[in-house]
Amino acid sequence: MVLAVSCALLALTLVMASCSMSGSESAVKPFVKPYISIQPQSYSYYNAANANNPNYVYPGTPPVLKVESTEWKSGDGSLSYQWYTFKDVEEYCEQGGTKLDGQTAPTYTPTIPDTADGKKYYYYVEVTNNKSDSLDAGSITDEMRTITSEVAVIAFSNPGRPLAPIVSKSPSNARYAWGAAFNPLQLRASINDGALKSNPGSISYQWYSNKAKKVDFDSDATTAEAVRMGNQATLMPNVDDLDLGDNFYFAVVTNTIGNYTSQIITIPAKIEIVPGKAAAAPRIITQPKDKLYFIGDTLAPLTALAESLDRGKISYQWYSNTLAAVNSGTPTPVGVPVEVPEGSPADTPIQFTPSIDTSTAGTFFYFVKAINTNPTIEDEIKRTAEIASKPVKVTVTSPGAKTANVSFTIPDPTKPANRYQYIRGYGGMDVAWGNFPKTSQDDTRLMYDPEQLGYNMLRIMIKADYLNPEETINELIAKDRPDYYNNVKIVNGYGGYVAASPWTPPKNWKSNNSINGGGNLIPAYYKLFATYLRNFAQVMYDNGAPIYCISISNEPNYVAGYDGCEWTPEEMRDFFLEVGHFTDGVRGWGGGKETPYVLTMNGESANTPNINLAALQNPKSKAVIDVLARHIYGSRTVSLWNQNKALITKKDAEGNDVMMEVWMTEHNINSSNATGYYNDSKWNYVWRYLNDVDLVIRINNENAFVWWASKRFYSMVGDGQFGSPDGKALPRGYALSHYARYTIDHTRIAVELNGTGTTGNGTKVENIDWTSSVINNSSDNMDNPSPRITAFASADGNSISVVLFTPTNTSGSSDSGYGGFGTMEINLPFEAKGVAAHRSRAINANTNELFEPFEEVTFDTSKTKAYITMPAGQIISVRFTK
């Protein structure tokens, strides 16, 4: 972040005393699991009988096999080694490997006959951490102490046959709860192209599954007992094919030249499926929709559809309520939950028709709970899990057309010309530094509960005090951030997204040997840092707090006097070229479901996003970047969408052009001095914040808005300083809620001014002046008082949301020069069959209405024209449902 206006100013003694950014190592540390950085290598050769042929290669003496744990520290424990061998995969399946007596070094030279006659020799090593004085020594099992390497195969091919392929990574064992998503099975294979360079051959794959570990082999061919499956290097098994207990998968890797082949069979991977501890909460894939009726209309049913995430059975219970909430309500009709009739298609929605008298006007609220029952759960109490839909509003009213001083049209949202960017969401940063207020679990629920502020994006810090990320997190939780995991779990539980950002690599790998800025990551350590980030993501997953994406650096183009690291654009490109998609195989979480891997993010620029151009212009580095991010401390209106749209366009799996998402992951606006800080939590200063949101979403076409920080006197939740109430939502918090409640998972769409109009005080507005008009002004002035309107369409096209606000002067004067919108007419692209709205405003100097229901949206008889009256100083968000 940029020091003049960003979070760094909060370290000034004016605000609070600073704290140490790194801790000293304790004498006794948590146990460190052993790891293998360099696996023993496989080799493929021709027999000695062909050594006189210059096209063939023979080793002369057997190669040295070795294993290495790079960067292992002596304080982490002493490592011991034991090598094993076995004759073939069938023997391994039956009895495992045979211990090689005396082979207890990290290197091993096997004994191989001079003429190997087409044979294969198999070896692996077990690495054990023997440390006994760790803090958690009593809970360390033998399984945790020892790790097994990849199997190294030394293979010899006969004359006229292709070389055997080299498998450097076999599919891995895994254990999953019944119905849970799982990682794809992966292997890596290559050809020793140093031999027979003129035609090394081509590799192909064939996967098999078996219910028993033992697999019968006839030479190199498998029997029909195994089920033939995929033919790629990666296999995603069908969850419906997996039974409780052990399921085994292996692959035959073949090198082919002409009509001749050589094969390697991988060690079977055991996929163990165990009963879950509790049923998984279902996912609602079709939410019920708001309904709008005129007096005397006939009611249509509310509908919803949910799916089980663990192969359970879904049932439903509808509720009525007196407000738009799902934490209370009356079951309706009273009785047992409704089940979808047996034999119905999986996409059959459940229907419910409310008992409402439409002869008089009124407002009614409903929601449905989807209940998942998993029969494999032993504990009867935990056998079911439920989730509530969004609350829906049923409105019965009379037509109420008005004379409007300004008219807008929302054109057909399905036409590409009328569509802009997808909206991922909104949220804030949970700062891990000790000089920031702690974000409690109650604070997080306030922000991310859909019935409170309703945000869905959390950014967290990745600290790098030690080379082991788990050790760093353990210390962080013990000292400054006890809810580090818990807050992530809460956001994930509400269906949100968590992004993790490192400010610096560990100091050992930097040119200045410090976690502070003023140094860069040494290129020789690119892979180690990628492994550090991958391990961080794995630790989060292992502790029940998986993340959605991970960046490689916070503000690589800013020299920080605190935690920081500088990267040139070319260094970021080269990093991705060298390490590739380094999070493959580490499961993530986002949008209420597990993801195949944690997404990767570029370095989050301190201002201009153009520092990413070098990585985007190279097809290989671009291919491994999933999400882009920037901060808007400078070059505020420079946007990758607006200036470099072609560079952020990719091909998806089906070959369609898709836009890479660009998130604004940090900005901070405050009054920059102790006297002014008291203003930042007041209503009149909410407009600076909303202008910032508007710039990111409407002017820059970016996909997410994340504020620095979640909890602070200038943020969404107060911290008790400078007049802000601790743990309570501030005006800025409610302001962002208007976007979060109505536009998440939507696409921004066009809004057109019809002819000419006027603002509330008669100021003329014309189409020809649209981009700089007093309505929807494109200025990035954070004190800009012109009225604003922005529209969004849901993914299914069944609803359109509009966010409107009419700023006053920062002084609080209602005379901003424009007088608000006055009465406005919105022409919809469809007949509105449902409507819901909320409003925030200052009633007087001491009283605010913060996110209150707004009932004054009226319609003409066609229900295609909506009318809203907005004086200055209000925020209104409206959802129109088809």
Radius of gyration: 31 Å
Q: Structural class, please?
A: mainly beta
> Which fold name corresponds to the CATH topology of the domain at 43-274?
Immunoglobulin-like
Low-confidence stretches: 1-27, 217-225
Strand order of the largest sheet: 39-36-35-34-33-44-43-40
Mean pLDDT: 87
Inertia-based shape:
globular
Indicate the CATH class of the domain at 43-274: Mainly Beta
Strand content: 25-35%
- The helix content is 10-25%
**Gap between N and C termini:** 43 Å
What is the annotated CATH architecture of the domain at 43-274?
Sandwich
| Count of strand segments | 56
* The CATH fourth-level homologous superfamily of the domain at 43-274: Immunoglobulins
Biggest sheet details: 8 strands, parallel
What's the number of helices? 12
What can be said about this structure in brief?
This protein has 882 residues and is mainly beta. The chain has 12 helices and 56 strands.
Description of the molecule:
The chain has an eight-stranded parallel sheet with strand order 39-36-35-34-33-44-43-40. The radius of gyration is 31 Å and the shape is globular. It starts with 42 loop residues before the first strand and ends with a strand. The relative contact order is 0.09. Helix 3 (441-448) runs parallel beside helix 5 (484-493) and helix 11 (686-699) runs parallel beside helix 12. The longest helix is centred in the middle third of the chain and has 17 residues, at 526-542. By secondary structure, it is mostly beta strands.
Ordered list of secondary-structure elements with their pairings:
Elements lengths: L42 E4 L18 E2 L12 E8 L2 H7 L2 E2 L7 E2 L11 E10 L12 H4 E3 L3 E6 L8 E4 L4 E4 L7 E2 L1 E3 L11 E9 L6 E2 L2 E2 L4 E2 L5 E2 L9 E13 L2 E6 L3 E6 L8 E4 L4 E4 L7 E6 L5 E9 L8 E2 L6 E2 L10 E3 L9 E12 L10 E5 L3 E6 L8 E4 L9 E4 L2 E6 L10 H8 L8 E6 L6 H11 L4 H10 L3 E6 L23 H17 L6 E6 L14 H11 L8 E3 L2 E3 L3 E6 L8 H5 L1 H5 L3 E5 L8 H4 L5 E3 L5 E3 L1 E6 L19 H14 L4 E4 L23 H13 L2 E4 L2 E2 L2 E3 L5 E3 L21 E7 L4 E8 L15 E6 L6 E9 L5 E6 L4 E2 L5 E6 L3 E8 L1
Parallel strand pairs: 1-8, 10-20, 22-30, 31-51, 33-34, 33-44, 34-35, 35-36, 36-39, 40-43, 43-44
Antiparallel strand pairs: 2-5, 3-4, 3-6, 6-7, 6-8, 9-12, 11-17, 13-16, 13-18, 14-15, 18-19, 18-20, 21-23, 23-27, 24-25, 24-26, 24-28, 28-29, 28-30, 31-46, 32-45, 37-38, 41-42, 45-49, 47-48, 49-50, 50-56, 51-55, 52-53, 52-56, 54-55
Helix pairs in contact: 3-5, 11-12
